[in-house]
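Please supply some protein, with fold tokens.
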Amino acid sequence: MILPFMIRLRAIQRFAAAPKRKTKLRFSALAAAVCLSMASSFGGAVGQEFPSRTVRIIVPFPAGGVPDILARILAQGLSEKWGHAVVVENRAGANTNLGAAHVARSAPDGYTLLFTTDGTFILNPILYANLPYSMSDLSPVTLVASSAHALAVAKTLPVKSVDEFVALAKQKPQQLSYGTSGPASIQRIAMELFSRTKGIELLHVPYKGSGETMTALVAGDISATINGGINIFPLKDDGSIKPLAVATVTRSRFAPELPTMQEAGVPGFSSQGLSGLFAPAGTPAEIRNKLHSDVVSLLARPAVKQALEKSFFEIQGKNADEFRDIIRIESEKWRRVITEASIKIE
């Protein structure tokens, strides 16, 4: 590539030195020749369409989980749309920090992306004193989907509403228990917000994940949980648990009979799971805009909508500015709860 460029450069120099040329004409031709020579010699990078090779989507979770499944739906659809491979690479570890840090350090060219949940972009920056990445190292591309959280209690608990649960908890402080996926999980933080809003004291029982939490709830080993709709809604009709309210601002179409927490007397309460796509900071706007546009068109496909709705996800497709505003608002809300409850990563 360098040799042809040098040959063209010498030709340009000879042209510039040629006699009996008007200076203005010679300069204009020289400038045009230089631009053409550089563009062709360096592979036409300026006009090259994205993508032109394999794109990697880093998922900071083990294979087989919900984030991994969502990322693979995106990867398959984008691969078909672009005509280039889009591969999902699982880089689990350190509560998603390993995968996020890898993308934050990657070249800002759109070929290494991050698909992750709100723990990565909302909770970890608050909970960790020494995070191996900064949110300033990542550029939001699109909020892909959200998942309603819901409050549910064990079928043996003698309550049928949020008010009755609160009344029972006030009668038995520290005797009703709730399960979560860990001491610093969104389930724990959401239940802290609920407890503090209603002035009740509950006993926290951490588990290794939502699967163990729901098993304990069905067995009656714990009294309650605030958990994702994907874990609660499939159990709402068989009587194995008692969902009391959804935690989103509006009712969920997956469980329209359930009131929202605000309707149930918990003012200002909202909690939901968020899943989004990020690129390394500095990725050109035109690439980020294309990524957003192509993901939105993919989310509109009936097969993709059906796949996401089957897991009780609401399709979002928010643009970067909207996504950034949501991150800011949610971060401010959960930072207050985390600080007041002195929740820390141990």
Q: What stands out?
A: Residues 320-341 form the longest helix (22 residues).
